[in-house]
């Protein structure tokens, strides 16, 4: 089990997520993002806008995901 927070995954807060795999971590982050979107949380909406800009370029998305996966892989087990 590893821990990352919302901010480490491109979000806007320090809420921690715990997961066994990077895919699980990404899913938890995505779920949290959708919850914050529904609440219209300004800081998270701004972070989402930055991600939308990134997603316009597939190569940049792949680079970002590879970097985040590498960060996840380097984390110690909880």
What would you say this structure looks like, in words?
This protein is mostly helical. It has one domain (2-74). The chain is 60% helix and 10% strand. Strands 1-2 form a two-stranded antiparallel sheet. The radius of gyration is 12 Å and the shape is globular.
Count of the separate structural domains: 1
Cross-sheet strand order for the largest sheet:
1-2
Low-confidence stretches: none
Main sheet characteristics: 2 strands, antiparallel
Radius of gyration: 12 Å
User: Mean pLDDT, nearest integer?
Assistant: 96
**What percentage of the residues does DSSP assign to strands (E)?**
5-15%
Number of helices: 3
Structural class by helix and strand composition: mainly alpha
- The percent range for helix content is 55-70%
Overall outline = globular
Quick structural summary:
The chain has 78 residues and is mainly alpha-helical. It contains 3 helices and 2 strands; from the N terminus they run E-E-H-H-H.
Topology, pairings included?
Layout: E1 2-5, E2 16-19, H1 22-38, H2 42-54, H3 58-74
Q: Any key phrases for this structure?
A:
78 residues, 10% strand, mainly alpha
